[in-house]
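S1.2 Input.
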Amino acid sequence: MKTSGIPAASVLRTRRSDQHVAGPSPYQAIGPVFVRRDAAAAAEVVDTIPPYLSRRLLSVRAYDDKEDIVDAEVAPGDRVDGLIRKLFAAPAIEHLHIHFARRGCFACNVVRSA
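S1.3 Output.
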């Protein structure tokens, strides 16, 4: 799903760290990180929803600059593009975390592109 031309273009980053929230926060989480054996670096996808997200039920959590969750929604992956746009319309949102809703596994971090 291509999203170029949106005012709040997004970058999805799949972290290779086991800590999802940087700094002190009540939302810090440590969990398993699944990395392909042949992966050389974390994927960075700009203005596109990758297939591994578009076909799953997702939990999207919006964080402010203090790492507090200020909004969150669950949506089918084929609707997450619109949800990202909606959440980033709020200036207080610094970044988003996307989790696979059924198992709760961290999928990626979404930031506004520069």
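S1.4 Remarks. Residues 54 and 77 are 4 Å apart (CA to CA).
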